[in-house]
Design goal:
The protein is of the alpha+beta class. Among the domains are: about 130 residues, Beta-Lactamase (2-Layer Sandwich); about 100 residues, PAS domain (Beta-Lactamase), CATH 3.30.450.20; about 140 residues, 2-Layer Sandwich (Heat Shock Protein 90), CATH 3.30.565. About 50% of the residues lie in helices and about 20% in strands. Strand 14 and strand 15 form a beta hairpin.
């Protein structure tokens, strides 16, 4: 009876303990879940704001670089056919590399004189956009960014404009414009189903959103005066601009027409005065997200606590037996480790041996026996010096052995071994010692490397370097050839094919509807193919390197790198004469590889590319503020990328150095004798 009472009391105490613990755990878990949900939401919002700001400003530097190109100035000053071809080529290159909708050049009157969409049905060439604010600001020497709906393309875009100046003048003679698609920005925004993003104009027009039905709606009802002003501006089309039905309750809450409530976060958008970013999240979805895990966790937690109390006695019992099993497992692991060591020692394809304090062989690996031509029975117990030439034997007994048994270490000792057949081989030996409890070296573990054929190896390396130079040269020639063939031959054929397709399309107007649709589809397919061909040509060999030189090529590549990686990249240079094609190619490829390593490994926020010429040498420096690395391990960690950069430098009689330390970034130095093009 007393035993039953004790069991009952213990069971009751266990239940009460489990219930109390379960409740306390539930309460703490609920508080932690709410805090974590709020933290994750704030982090996500900041990330979306950062990405949005980056998307809306990523072409500020490229448009400046485009405005500074000689091709743009030449087209505005001397608008001849040759200048137009060069200007269109530069605009095509920037459009393809940046992945934007269109790049175009406008004269002082606001008329488009060159454009990357010149062959499209909605071409900007000949169109006047002087009414746009981005033109009015840039023509008065002020760079501009502008969000609007295209009046010709009827597509939303971000317009980046920059004035074009004559050398030494401060009054613009025209401007260049880059238009980036808003559709691409919306695709890049990562959002859950219960989140909404609204980017609104100063007048409250929703211009960017993941809720397509609210596009070009307003956050509040527009007055008649506001509507007329929007119609005149043509910034968002001709309207109408209906109200979303949102009712805002302070700065942090809102309710839609269906009664759904939202938590609101808002902020101004940098560089776009009056434009705002709003993040709306469904309150009901957040509540379900937080409460669901609580409901699932409460029952298992209570059950787990009850079971835990019941298992405590069993755990105590198992503890003792577990320690015994652990000890047996450790002993077995030790035996297995010894077996693996012996297997590794005897089957490693390297000459391994061990000697005692008297210099006698106590073990040799299978590979040692194979190379020397002796069986293990013939060598075990004999002095190691018996297998050395007389000179090596004297050196070992008088110098190496005494020093080794004193320090317990030796490295790269040159010996000459005598094989069983009388052949002599040159080896380099390194060894460490196994010490006793008194700290004395008792036994060695030595590895010997056969270096007899080192001269042949050096000769082969020289031949390999010559082959490498030939391969690199032929590779660049082949890339350039393929790029030219793709751009000139295939590009011309595709352009001619497109003109024929347009001719058929025009002839079929008023005829069969199916024929017109097929002709339009053919034009679209040809345009896509032309674009793919241009991108392939750029990847093989950037035309800007061949046509405009090293400086223009690096200016284009650094701008493209910043756009692709979100790493701030600044290109600085002094006056650099037109360099030899081999030197320019090497500098460009080294920059490519160095910036690729920055993107993959450095975790950098900023990188600077500096190009200078001091009259005798070309100096290229790439500096990043990333995590850096230990220079002591560079040789072991050096991959094909760094090896390739060093090889390119060596083939031109130059040198490539790297300077880095953990936490302090990395610097790459490329120096090469300056060889200019003939006549420069």
């Amino acid at each position: 009876m007393r035993l039953r009472l004790i069991i009952f009391v213990l069971s009751l105490l266990a239940f009460l303990s489990a219930s109390t613990g379960g409740y306390l755990y539930y309460a703490s878990l609920r508080r932690a879940a709410f805090k974590e949900a709020e933290r994750q939401s704030n982090t996500h919002i900041e990330l979306i704001k950062k990405n949005l700001s980056s998307f809306l400003s990523e072409n500020i530097k490229p448009v400046k670089a485009l405005a500074g190109m000689e091709e743009m100035l030449e087209m505005l000053v001397r608008p001849k056919r040759e200048a137009l071809i060069k200007a269109n080529a530069a605009l095509d290159l920037f459009k393809a590399s940046l992945g934007v909708d269109v790049c175009y050049l406008m004269n002082h009157a606001g008329t488009t004189v060159a454009s990357s969409n010149r062959n499209a049905p909605d071409s900007f060439v000949g169109k006047n956009f002087a009414f746009r604010p981005y033109f009015q600001q840039a023509i008065h020497s002020a760079p501009s960014t502008y969000l609007a709906l295209g009046t010709t393309s009827h597509k939303r875009g971000v317009y980046f404009s920059f004035p074009v100046f004559e050398k030494g003048e401060d009054i613009p003679i025209g401007l260049v414009v880059i238009k980036a698609s808003i559709d691409q920005i919306e695709k890049k925004l990562s959002l859950s189903g219960d989140e909404m993003i609204l980017v609104t104009s100063p007048s409250g027009i929703i211009f960017i959103t993941n809720k397509s039905e609210w596009l070009f709606h307003t956050l509040h009802e527009l007055s008649r005066e506001d509507t007329q002003r929007l119609v005149r501006s043509r910034q968002f089309g001709k309207g109408p601009w209906p109200w979303t039905g949102l009712h805002f309750e302070g700065d942090t809450s809102a309710r839609d027409a269906e009664g759904n409530r939202y938590i609101v976060h808002s902020a101004d958008i940098e560089n776009y005065q009056g434009w705002r970013f709003l993040h709306l999240r469904d309150e009901q979805a957040i509540s379900e997200l937080v409460s669901a895990p609580f409901t699932k966790a409460a029952g298992p937690v209570v059950l787990a606590l009850c079971v835990l109390i019941g298992l405590s006695v069993f755990v105590l019992y198992r503890k003792a037996s577990g320690e015994i099993l652990q000890r047996k497992a450790a002993e077995k692991a030790l035996r297995d480790s010894e077996v693996r060591y012996r297997t590794l020692y005897h089957h490693t394809p390297a000459m391994l041996h061990s000697i005692d304090r008297e210099g006698r062989l106590v073990s040799v690996s299978d590979y040692w026996s194979e190379v020397m031509g002796y069986s293990k029975k013939e060598v075990i117990g004999k002095p190691l010096v018996d297998f050395l030439t007389p000179e090596s034997r004297e050196y070992a007994e008088q110098v190496v052995f005494p020093q080794f048994f004193k320090t317990g270490y030796c490295k790269d000792i040159p010996y000459r071994f005598k094989k069983k057949g009388g052949e002599v081989i040159d080896i380099v030996l390194s060894a460490i010692s196994d010490r006793n409890t008194a700290g004395q070296a008792e036994r060695s573990l030595a590895v010997s490397i056969d270096v007899t054929d080192i001269k042949e190896l050096k000769k082969a390396q020289h031949q390999l370097r010559r082959l490498s130079a030939s391969i690199m040269t032929n590779q660049e020639k082949e890339r350039a050839y393929l790029a030219r063939e793709l751009h000139d031959e295939l590009g011309q054929v595709l352009t001619a094919l497109r003109m024929d397709a347009i001719w058929f399309q025009e002839r079929l107007q008023g005829a069969e509807d199916d024929g017109v649709e097929r002709a339009q589809a053919m034009c679209g397919l040809i345009d896509k193919t032309i674009e793919e061909v241009r991108l392939m040509a750029i990847r093989l060999r950037p035309g800007v390197l061949d046509h405009l030189g090293l400086v223009a090529a690096l200016e284009w590549y650094t701008a493209d790198f910043e756009r692709r990686t979100d790493v701030s990249c600044v290109f600085e240079h002094t006056h650099v004469p037109d360099t030899d094609e081999r030197v320019a190619t090497a500098a460009y490829r080294i920059t490519q590889e160095a910036l690729t390593n920055v993107a993959r490994h450095a975790l950098a926020k900023h990188v600077t590319v500096n190009l200078q010429a001091d009259g005798k040498r070309l100096l290229l420096t790439i500096i990043d503020d990333g995590i850096g690395f230990d220079m002591a391990i560079l040789e072991d960690a050096e991959g094909l990328g760094v090896a390739g950069m060093r090889e390119r430098a060596a083939l031109l009689g130059g040198e490539l150095e790297m300077d880095a330390s953990p936490g302090k970034g990395t610097t790459v130095y490329f120096r090469v004798p300056l060889t200019t093009k003939a006549g420069t």
